């Protein structure tokens, strides 16, 4: 990360109630003011405020068009574009300067991670908007001495096993190996990095990967992701020098949609779902330790 910006930024987002919460007559205990998020204990009325780099209110203040687009109606509503402008854009700017960047979506199951990262239907999330914006700039490049190359990979970690989401067949056992190289750092052996020439190609790969990703319905979320997903956009800028030698500036943008933490009593998980849930919770707590 460049030294003139904070190396870590944290944002929270509150989504609208889902059907289950509406049926239960739930009351919203979160309020937001600027970057501050306040939680109120519904019994005692006690409040606790937290400050983040961004607090996004997406609970209400919008209408849904007949095409299914969530449109801002009130000023306080944070739409997908705004979340991209604050978070995805910084990641892109860093990539242009040759820095690696990572964006994680973390939260309880059903809290809206996949919605923010990938999006549903016409409400595109950070990942597709970032890719779209990247290619807009690439396509406007008129510098003949600068070649811009992009490749795309997409993997999931399901029950502690790494699987390439751009490969259709689900290997019964095994999974890809994570290795460490002195120069390249950590990498996944055998993972496909597909060269892409335009946004349409990325969109197609992303659709394919999303279909291959393991999801299932639980009591908490009808479209619950049962795996952690990592999309890597590798961006190379090959710059021709006056001496005829080329210089490559390379950066990886890692976009991570984690599986949600869950309580088996709330998700109603048994069998496979329970096994997945316990792998998810264990790996999230390990990730927490690593970050700490
Ligand atoms: N900001 C939002 N605006 C409107 N709807 C949202 C928003 N965030 C989430 N939703 C809706 O809430 C539901 C759950 O969201 P999502 O699938 O993104 O959760 P998740 O955190 O990825 O869950 P899991 O960890 O179980 O995969 C979806 O139907 C999604 O469309």
TrEMBL record:
Domain named Kinesin motor: residues: 7-292
Residues annotated to bind ATP: 107-114
Domain of life: Eukaryota
Coiled coil spans: none
Record GO terms (molecular function): ATP binding; microtubule binding; microtubule motor activity
Any Pfam family the entry gives: Kinesin
GO biological process annotation, one example: microtubule-based movement
Gene3D superfamilies found in the cross-reference section: Kinesin motor domain
UniProtKB keywords: ATP-binding, Motor protein, Nucleotide-binding
Family that this chain belongs to: Belongs to the TRAFAC class myosin-kinesin ATPase superfamily. Kinesin family.
Protein name according to UniProt: Kinesin-like protein KLP6
Organism encoding this protein: Mizuhopecten yessoensis
